[in-house]
Here is the input.
Amino acid sequence: MHPHAFYRDPYPVYAEARGTRGLTFLPELDAWLVSRRQDVREVLGDPERFSSVSALRPDHLPGRAALAELSKGFGGTRTVLSADGEAHRRLRRPLTRGLSPARIAATIPYVTARAEALIGSFSGDGQAEWMAAYAGPLPADVIGHLLGLDPADTPGAIHGAQRAEALVFTELTEAEQVEAARQIVAMQRLLDEYARARRREPQDDLITEMVRELAPGSGDLAPAQRKEVVSNVQNLLLAGHLTATALLGTVLLNLLRDRRQWELLVERPELVPAAIEEAVRFDAPIQGFRRTVTTTVTLSGTELHEGEVVFVSFASAGRDADAGVRPDEFDITRPARHVSFGHGPHGCPGSQLAKEQVRITLEILIRVLPGLRLARTDVTMAPTLIHRAPEALFLTW
Here is the structure.
């Protein structure tokens, strides 16, 4: 199977793997697929034997010209996603503090105001392309706000982070690679300016938390500190908005695909939290991450050796249930069980922020646009496992 075909609809492959004894090797990922919930939890809970060092291994390595451009920037160091042990704990601490329940609660009025404004900007039109009009812009504004970016700087920073993902996960020509690298470096220089400014004048924001934790002290930031702060803020820019963007796309797609689900939600708004958990279970926004085996280990009857790679599928785990539970049906009345935001030391620190954005969005939509429906049912999913979402979602009301 071509990787793009697998990325657009991996669920049949997951189902076959769950029904097969042992692990299944996937050439599309050059990795062993971990597809069952129990195995997924075992791998994620054992970072000593299953290392995160290659969690985000590139699908495409940039060419020499693009690498030359990237060398002018501030990235390239280890981030929280690809670190283990004490290094991981140190990189995670500012995220845990910066995305604490209290910090998220304080952000709710901003999220609500932006959500109301965005929906208000097109609610009188009778139609919209949801991903561009709302699912992309809201989480981008929210993560920019939490980081402490000037609203005028947020779009450029977000675009640079998206190009960083595109550079290693999509096939680009040499010219496109070089252009992407230049945009990435521009974004990194902007973030570096913010980091140095926060060293001089700390603020109540996530960039300040990053600087305080990763570069303790009061003097000017050293070059290595600047690179580490920028790399991890860049990672947060991506992770902090793409997960929510994906979930905002798939929750509406699945609610509207079966009209009865949407109408039930309109009738019973108290089901909004359950609808969000079911959306996360049914179509995990991040399908999974790689782990590298550090020692000989047997998983699900398959012997793995040092250096081998497994792909831990959060999404497959969400569908791992007795057939009587109908795991391949979207049902907002079920108590959803999932590990779609990870498990163990690498559990997603921003999961509550993503869910709050979806909650606020659904509560506004069922009040303002209860007649919402899909304008087109031929929806194509983006060819990626990093943030599973519709490429476009045309709505009408």
Q: What stands out?
A: The first strand starts at residue 24 and ends at 26. The radius of gyration is 21 Å.
